[in-house]
Amino acid sequence: MPIKIIEGLPVREKLREERIFTIEESRAHTQDIRPLRILILNLMPLKQATERQFLRLLGNSPIQIDVDFLYTASYESSNTPTSYLQEYYQSFDQVKEQFYDGLLVTGAPVEKMPFEDVDYYQELRDIMTWAQTHVFNRYFVCWGAQFALNYYYGIEKELLDEKLFGVYPYRTLNFEHPYVRGFDDVFHVPHSRHTRMNAEQILQVEGLEVLTGHEVFGPDLMVSQDGRDVFIFGHLEYDRETLSLEYHRDLHRGDRIALPENYFPDDDVNRLPVFNWRSHGHLLMHNWINETYQETPYNLEELLSW
């Protein structure tokens, strides 16, 4: 089934080239079904690249999905024109009376800052509070996952000595859990971050289950006991070239940056990176959509009484 997007969203043409099927509102109204409603809070500076990455994963589903994009009104983006956000995104004030099956919160390039120093700190806390009564399932990625773990459980963030940058093998720890259904024993995950969450604190939270981990880097994919909050530090949504673009961007800016590990064949930047995390990116999103579809109430307003 297609995903429903706002009329004229520019990334639609790129998705069409990849045979990711979308549907606009005028056509969706003629269908007598109950689609899933997903809200994506896109905190990344390059909005369209992130849109494409997550819409690609959401579009690989037999279920029709209605997608809205959310931006933070308390922060003025320096990379995306305000006119683009006003046309294709909504503010929290515009959605706070609505209900959604799922909320997806992306990463953000603010990880070195204390949470409370981020410009949209209070707005994001307000969104998190609202989501507990207006959204059935929530999915947090990278810095979004760090913020959520701190918000829900008080887990602290720690600065790494060196940036974790590359593609790393992670191990599946609980094959029985529906969110890792179909996962291999070991699979690859791209990472690009300067911080981590305190692993000892994560393991001490009774209502949090670690589903995948690395013997050195610790937990990566976690889920709340009720299955309604998913946290992942890695970037299974990344394109093949995302780490390459980031590496060359930082070189151009004169930043201190090492080659991404386990990424370029023989560490040769002129060779095409191996895309060895794509299948698990689709699989995790498929599992999340399936669990949301199976468990969410037909009338989302029932969430207010849960």
Automatic annotation (TrEMBL):
Q: What is its EC number?
A: 2.3.1.31
Q: Which Gene3D superfamilies match?
A: 3.40.50.880
Its annotated pathway? Amino-acid biosynthesis; L-methionine biosynthesis via de novo pathway; O-acetyl-L-homoserine from L-homoserine: step 1/1
Q: Which residues does the annotation say bind substrate?
A: K163, S192, R249
User: Which keywords label this protein?
Assistant: Acyltransferase, Amino-acid biosynthesis, Cytoplasm, Methionine biosynthesis, Transferase
What catalytic activity does the UniProt entry give for this protein?
A: L-homoserine + acetyl-CoA = O-acetyl-L-homoserine + CoA
- The primary location reported for this protein is cytoplasm
Identify the residue position(s) of the site Important for substrate specificity: S192
Q: Which InterPro entries match?
A: Class_I_gatase-like, HST_MetA, MetA_family
Q: One GO molecular-function annotation for this sequence?
A: homoserine O-succinyltransferase activity
What is the superkingdom listed in this entry's lineage? Bacteria
Which residues are the active-site ones? Answer: C142, H235, E237
Cellular localization per UniProt:
Cytoplasm
General function of this protein? Transfers an acetyl group from acetyl-CoA to L-homoserine, forming acetyl-L-homoserine.
Q: Which NCBIfam families match?
A: metA
Q: Which family does it belong to?
A: Belongs to the MetA family.
The name this protein carries in UniProt is: Homoserine O-acetyltransferase
Organism per entry: Suicoccus acidiformans
Q: Could you tell me the gene encoding this protein?
A: metAA
